[in-house]
Fold this protein.
Amino acid sequence: MKKNILLMGLCAGMILTGCASQSETDSSVKEVSLDIVVKDEVNDKELFNETLTKEGDIENLYDFLSECDELEIVFEEGSYGAYIDSMLGLKQDFNKGPWWLFSSENNETCKEEGMCPAVQNLGINDGDQFVFSYTNEF
């Protein structure tokens, strides 16, 4: 009887230890820091230039920017997914401009493709740098 109780206790301990270890390693919560520059090219002003650090379930640029209250970003849904409609109070005119564009010189995907894909499709890494431009020109 004592052996059965001891065996059951040992099994329960292993299960609890396994669950605790799994929950720590399966967690998708991570901390990401990005260098963000926001330029108003229409009025030739730099509006923002800081490194922002966010923590959460961050898989792509959309996830990161969704956590950035300081940038006052408003997303809209388009045929290719979400796009930036407004940032820091500057709203784009999708048909005639100015528009919100973004680029990165060190994000691997942007470098490989020669341009950055849509925010929901762009994976990011800690230390990536992005420039968001409010511009009348492509």
